Amino acid sequence: MRFFALLRMTLAERQPVSSKGESYKKNEREMWNQFSRRYTDVVLPEFRPFGRRLIELAGIRPGMWVLDVATGPGEPALTIARRVGPRGLVAGVDFSPTMLRGARARARALGVRNAQFHEMDAERLTFESLTFDRVVCRFGLMLMPNAERALAEMHRVLVPGGRVAVAIWSAQSKVNTLGIVRRALERHDAFHPPPGAPDFFRFGKAGAMERALRAVGFRQVRTERMTVGWVFNNPEEFWDSMKQGPSLRRALAKVSPAVRRAVRADVFRALEQYERNGRLRIPNEAVLALGIK
């Protein structure tokens, strides 16, 4: 039955469906398409510890069917595919076609045959209800303008007793890599999110993720906080990495060269507190949440 549910999905996914924040999503899709290679080379290794913990929390076992929402270039989907084995299946969904091409290429290179990837809006999943044993979403939920709808969709496609495991960033003050840059931009009136953009840190507030999961029907909800230090060789490497990301890249494109220099100088000053033995080690805290249908 679940095989035919996936067949129906591949036909349905071609049907466009309007939803909240379409203009924002279109612009974000273009930005993430451009960021795809850098994300794969630099960000995936930084996110790997969070992905491993999500897999542990979800209790993923051989033979399970798992959905990876906002899979990007295929993680943690491809790691999960090895965990569920040949009797299991993983479906990764993302709104960026460039990211998904990378995911499919990585799957071929790794010889992974039990993972498939689909371009899809997480707020409008086209899978049949009761299709998956587990759903995971690593650092995608906070980017969605109607994240509550996305959570409801995750709940819908899970079988009874199925689990969702989500990773989102904590409060801005505890996500130092991003917080340093945002504070510098705000200081120079250069932080102007695009229309329709959600509050990136809204689920990092105490109790926010738990309330969101319970509101769509999940039970036995629990969260934990996990901190990982990101290492950079020097401030220049940090700045080069961050300015290639969608948020800072967008902000710097709209300001004068003088403001760009001032923002950079502020970021470098803020980085001084993280220097250890000639390198930077910057801690970033995430909230990991688990819910059961």
Give a topology summary.
Elements: H1 2-12, H2 22-58, E1 65-69, H3 77-84, E2 89-94, H4 97-110, E3 115-119, E4 132-138, H5 147-157, E5 158-169, H6 176-187, H7 208-215, E6 219-232, H8 235-243, H9 246-252, H10 257-271, E7 275-276, E8 279-292
Parallel strand pairs: 1-2, 1-4, 2-3, 4-5
Antiparallel strand pairs: 5-8, 6-8, 7-8
Helix pairs in contact: 2-4, 6-10
What would the CATH topology be? Answer: Rossmann fold
Distance between the termini: 20 Å
Helix count, DSSP H or I runs of 4 or more residues: 10
Q: Tell me the radius of gyration.
A: 19 Å
Low-confidence parts lasting 5 or more residues at pLDDT below 50?
Answer: 7-19
Helix percent reads 40-55%
For the record, the CATH class is: Alpha Beta
* H and E order: HHEHEHEEHEHHEHHHEE
Tell me about the biggest sheet? 8 strands, mixed
**Overall outline:** globular
The domain tally reads 1
Question: At CATH's second level, what is the architecture?
Answer: 3-Layer(aba) Sandwich
Residue fraction in strands: 15-25%
Strand count: 8
The CATH superfamily bears the name: Vaccinia Virus protein VP39
- Output the structural class: alpha/beta
**Overall residue-averaged pLDDT value:** 90
